[in-house]
Amino acid sequence: MKWKADFEDFLSGRTESEVFDKSTLMSLWKLMDKGIIELIDFPISTGKEGNVFRGKNRDGFVAVKIYRINTITFRNISKYLQYDGLVNVKKNRRSVIYAWSNKEFANLSRLHEAGVRVPEPIAIDGNVIVMEYIGTEEMPAPLLKDAEMEEPETVFDDVVKNMSLMYKRAGLVHADLSEYNILYQKEVVIIDVGQTIKAKNPMAYKFLERDAYNVAKFFGKFFEVDKDKILKQILEEKI
Question: Which of 6, 84, 125, 176 is catalytic?
């Protein structure tokens, strides 16, 4: 089978610099066996907590996010799980990472259903999430910090609209929003929603203020804006 050959090639030649434990490889194998992934193409990004690869199946490209079991920032993840009320997760690394992966997948589903522009979630197995690929055949969509914007004000309005949809319709706050986790390709796409918390959480408004501050700081390079203006727009936006 072609997917099996591709998978074996991926394991033997394309992961030399990455750390994949046995359970991660089994998750990839199961997703490939179901046809959700047929091949892993190339890495899109490498972060502190996980890697994102471009994959492919019979319908086209997908993004494959893999949380690292052994090197992830364990303490920070546990903190955000507690914010979300997930305090009964077993205190071992694998259980926490699996809980985090499921939390991100659930957040993606909730945000997508609410109309927030996020990658559409496709499937999850263990610490591996498959979602919509954002980009072209030639390259993935750039982060907002690297994107060329002809009309920064329009992009700003798009970001704030999505923040408002997230807060008022999905009942969530990103809690780590910045130009480093927003993609831009004709429209903004919000990513990395594992740490996202419910709007009813006592810490939610503090995180919303921080998100607004980060967005204001970035767009302040192009025109005058402050976090209070953003917060006002989010709270007054008619959804």
Answer: 176
> Does the annotation count 176 as an active-site position?
yes
**Residue bearing tokens 């009964």:** 88
Choose the catalytic residue: 192, 211, 226, 228.
192
51-99 tens-digit pLDDT:
999 999 999 999 999 998 775 555 566 566 665 655 455 567 788 888 8
**113 and 15 within one domain:** yes
Q: Assess whether 158 and 230 both reside in one domain.
A: yes
**Which residue type sits at 82?**
Q
pLDDT digits (tens, 9 = 90+) for 28-38: 999 999 999 99
HSE-up (13 A, CA, CB side) for residue 109: 11
Catalytic residue list contains 192: yes
Do 125 and 41 fall within a single domain?
yes
| One domain for residues 118 and 162 | no
* Domain range enclosing 202: 144-236
Instruction: Kindly report the CATH number assigned to the domain that includes residue 49.
Output: 3.30.200.20
Are the beta carbons of 28 and 35 closer than 8 angstroms?
Answer: no
In sequence order, what are the residues at sequence separation of 6 or more whose Cβ sits closer than 8 angstroms to the Cβ of residue 171?
198, 199, 200
